[in-house]
Amino acid sequence: MEKPPQNHDACAFCAIRESEDVIARNELAFALRDTTPVTRLHTLVLPIRHAPTYFDLSAAEVAAVDELLRSVRKQILDEDPTVSAFNMGANAGADAGQTIFHCHIHLIPRRKGDVDDPLGGVRAVIPERMRY
Which residue of the set 50, 102, 104, 106 is catalytic? Predict the structure, then answer.
């Protein structure tokens, strides 16, 4: 059973949406580096409004998040020329691994050779199903 969405007053992401940790923003979304990064420059892009999952976003928020994903991707590529690819994804619900119920999209920079075999990419969330 899915956990109930957190109240925005208790939400870790709502608490930092105005902090100096924010690296980019637009009218409806903001971005910050992940505090437990999978790779260097791993970034989260979030709506400013407290919305539990991606599927709770308005069309305008989806567009704002997409705009920031593209902008931050460019910033990462400019900062680190060794980045050759990206994984992006969002956990939507407790059974998908979501632990903070404020929508956040992971933008994870990848570099050639950072894993032995990248085949399967995001499919690796269930390791025995990642190869196809």
Answer: 104
